[in-house]
Amino acid sequence: MSVFVFGHRNPDTDAICSAIAYADLLQKTTRPDAVAACCGPPNKRTEYVLERAGIAPPRIIMDVRPSAEDLCRKAVVTASFGESFHEVYRRMQAHDLRAIPVVDDDRRVEGVLSVLDVMSLFFDNEHDPVKSRTVSTSLEKIHGVLGGDFQHVVDPGQHDELMVMVGAMSAEGFTERMRKFAAQRLIVVCGDRPTIHLPAIEHGVRVLVITGGFTLSAGLVELAKLRGVSVITSPFDTLNTVLRIRSAQFIDSVVDRDVVTIDGKAALADARSVVERSSQPVFPVLGDDGRLVGYCFKTDIINPPKQQLVLVDHNELTQAVAGAEDAEIVEVLDHHRLGGGLKSTQPIRFINEPVGSTCTLVARQFRAAGLVPTSAIALCMASGIISDTLFLRSPTTTDIDREVLTWLRGLCEVDLDRYAREFFEIGSALRTKPPAGVIAEDCKEFIEQGVRFSISQIEETGFDLFWERKEELRAALEDFADRRSLDFSALLITDVVEQGSLLLLSHESEALDEINYPRLDRGLYELKNVVSRKKQLLPLLAQLITPTAAAKR
User: Fold this and answer.
1) Disulfide-capable partner of 376 in 39, 53, 436, 548 (CB 3.0 to 4.6 Å)?
2) What Å distances lie between residue 410 and 157, 373, 379, 403, 414, CA to CA?
3) For the chain, how many structural domains are there in total?
4) Residues 255, 136 contacting (CB under 8 angstroms)
């Protein structure tokens, strides 16, 4: 199972670029199975980055809780009606399987066959002298398991119900016994005994099997042709020949057709409720078209492996991909505050440093490993730094960010100054997205002193479009807070040219009345020199929330 490298929900450029770059580093060092993933499509600016870098977008995965199709075994070994015990058992033995699905030519499931089912072909009816010697097969299947030759054959593919008789007694006694049964239902097995061969051919048996590597005489072969008797030679002795003939039986009669299947898209909990109630040894997994895509054993569903995740640009489960709480977090690389909810059963690598961008930390990991990123990955990481630090103008910028960006500048095949200007001119959320899309553009949820809230941030070159859309944005914020059961939602609109922001709130409260910035309108504040959600706005809101939450207690 691959390890997924994920940024936070509603990913921004730093989240996606750090996931791509860190997955690339892991692939080259410790985890060749690392896959960059994201919880939603890239925004316009990130699309521009990936296009300029020539990098494919990360895999979009909205929920890491595995489905039945994720867990099932894809290298499917199957059987089909009309196959013999010998063929199927050898196949199961080669793949160390105790049960396999039975499918038709269109890969639609018709049943399940287990080793116990197959063995019943040998041991059922052992107390009935007729049924215990009856085999449902074809001459073609018998010939296949014996590996001998046809000296003459009639309708080799015909399905027959045959009774095995061994010519091991006197010719007189054998002939008397043989004549009690319908000739076309008999398969006579014996060694080099012409006194048995002749009466069997004259009786017109379905097939005569000559054991021990012997062959039928030319005269008797001609008589067999006249009487329509098939003749097969066997290299084995009589005992082993009989055993192999029994192994040539069709599996059809013992296939369990009352089979439980699992929808490939079924959630693990739903699949578990199905398999827990069944004694079936293997569970075919079906695709949307009803065809077999794989199969699961009960243990695959009851005790599934956990999806491994690497979190970048976040460490709070409220911001992580859905299902992260049930996954195994193996590593975290972040530059935000420590949040709640993250636990591990064993020590993990946890890198959290106060720098301006997660891509700064990823670049440092490249250097620590003694690796030089490709120009494409270098531009990807430079873009994350440019985005999160507003091209080194944000108060979150550190000397480490500056030094790392200088190093990356030498690896990129573009003029970063011109590239940064183009980057910020592209993809205005206010110009291209509906109100709900603006709120979701780069939205993170937080819990502070029991107060649940969200902060969305967009970066614009001026506030003109905001004033035109203020009321619809306010309504979208209120709707988002109500749908997510949040105490309030906030939208920070940052002017990357003037280095200031406007703050729009879905709901005003007593705590937020204490905000020490000019109030321009209901729930709207002017925050001069505030451009960072992480370092400026979040600490301010947390400071305002704390006394109010304490007073309520």
Assistant:
1) 53
2) 73, 11, 10, 11, 9
3) 4
4) no
